[in-house]
Amino acid sequence: GPRGQPPSYFLPRGVIMSESKVSLKKLVKPWPESDKTEFGFEDVVRGQYGGCKFVAKDGLSLNRTVITHLVSSMGKNIMEGKSIINISLPVTIFEPRSFLQRMTDHWAFAPLYLNKAAMAKDPVERFKWAIAFMISGLHNGCRQKKPFNPILGETFQATYPDGTEVFLEQVSHHPPVSQYELFGPNGTWKMCGFNEYRASFRPNGVVGGQYGPNKIEFQDGTVIEYTMPQVTVSGMVIGDWLFYWTGTTTFVDRKNNLTAEITFDPDAANSVISYATSFFSTKSPCDYFKGSLKKDGKEICPIEGCWLAKLKFKEKVYWRIRQYLPFTPTELEKTLPSHATKREDLVALLQGDVELSQTEKKRLEEKQRADRKLRLQGDVELSQTEKKRLEEKQRADRKLRKEHGPAKKEGH
Fold first, then answer.
1. In this structure, what is the dihedral angle of CA atoms 315, 321, 324, 330, given to the nearest 10 degrees?
2. 262 forms bridges with which residues in the sheet?
3. Percent of residues in the chain assigned helix, strand, coil, to nearest 5
4. Can you list the alpha helix ranges (DSSP code H) found in 351-407?
5. Residue of 362, 337, 344 lying closest to 402 (CA atoms)
6. What DSSP state is assigned to residue 30?
7. Tens digit of each residue's pLDDT (9 = 90 or more) over 134-169
8. β-strand partners of 148
């Protein structure tokens, strides 16, 4: 299971093939001068003391209305840090994407930096490029709207411009766990892992993260494992609405005895006290990070930078923001029926039908809860029967909507 060995799923194992270099010069596209945004997103700027600051007033107002409702309905459970992963939320604060799709945002520079890593002959240089890959995608997760929680068995299949294939599947509903596998061009590298998502309320914010192994494998047998930092969102009730990374991330290459540990917001500049006093202090911004790269347990290179600006090993810059455009995965033409973009609630929101999206979201959530209850009771046969009944009802409802349009409410 997710807490032990990764569960089996629909993907075949990758086949490592002969090396064939990718032309990175032809692959990358420089950041256009016409794009004046700081990170590529409208209504997102760097905060006064670091981090991504959301400045869309309509979005802030809407989110705070929802948060106020949750606080009043859940009371002290929120203040005690209860998990909010499975709380049902209105689709008005959602973007028309699944969390499986959102996961790929962090891999936006895989075609550049993982191919660089695969081409590197020096183990230390390869290790640095693997770190650059992870750091380069952190700012790409600064999105104000929430994605849809994946349904158990939901999948997403896509490709990057360099030929990298992407496969994801939701393998557990409670706790929510997503498994993934990426195959680099010509089998030069492979990345796999699974993440359990946790998030809980804190006063005026949320703290969460993706917990699980992430492994990058290369043709010569080198495997680099890494963890993700925690994410914090503050200002959800009062103050600036900020998104920033905290905690420590580690990288390990056991074959070459290389390790790296990077601490985000090392001076704890995200605390209430330091934000209030940082104008008068020398504390670094909350988006600053620092660490060290070690060989055989001895430091060979300091690491520092800002995930909204650049990454440096000693004084050499390996990644800089706004240098190249991020890569966006393209969905496969032929996908499984469980493909994320085929979800009725997501499709309805994409088409602008908020009411239908909310109805479909509620139906899917109720179906998941019913299925889980039957599985816990051990009644697999009844669970399968119930699943079939709900699927037939779903097809019938879809047919009626196509023939007659959405049902009209009484009094309208």
1. 130
2. 249, 291
3. 35, 30, 40
4. 354-377, 380-404
5. 344
6. B
7. 999 999 988 888 899 999 999 999 999 999 999 999
8. 98
Cβ–Cβ contacts within 10 Å for residue 373, how many?
12
The residue written with tokens 């599947």 in the block is 169
C-alpha 361/C-alpha 371 separation (Å) is 15
d(CA 237, CA 63): 9
8 Å CB contact between 104 and 121 = no
- pLDDT value of residue 84: 58
Report CA-CA distances (Å) from 301 to 122, 130, 201, 216: 15, 15, 37, 21
Name the burial class of residue 200, with classes exposed (0-12), middle (13-18) and buried (19+) by CB atoms within 10 angstroms of its CB: middle
Residue 68: strand, helix, or coil: helix
Q: Give pTM, 2 decimals.
A: 0.82
Residue 129 in tokens: 């490029």
Tally: H helices and E strands in the chain? 10, 19
Instruction: Please say whether the beta carbons of 310 and 136 come within 8 A.
Output: no
Give DSSP secondary structure letters for 225-236.
EE-PPEEEEE-S
Helix (H, G, I), strand (E, B) or coil at 296: coil
β-bridge mates for residue 98, sequence order: 148
The β-bridge relationship of strands 165-172 and 155-159 is: antiparallel
- Between CA 22 and CA 349 the distance in angstroms is 38
Residue 390 CA to its chain's centroid (Å): 30
> What pLDDT digit, counting tens, does each position of 312-366 carry?
999 999 999 999 999 999 999 999 999 999 999 999 999 999 999 998 888 888 8
pLDDT at residue 70 in the model = 65
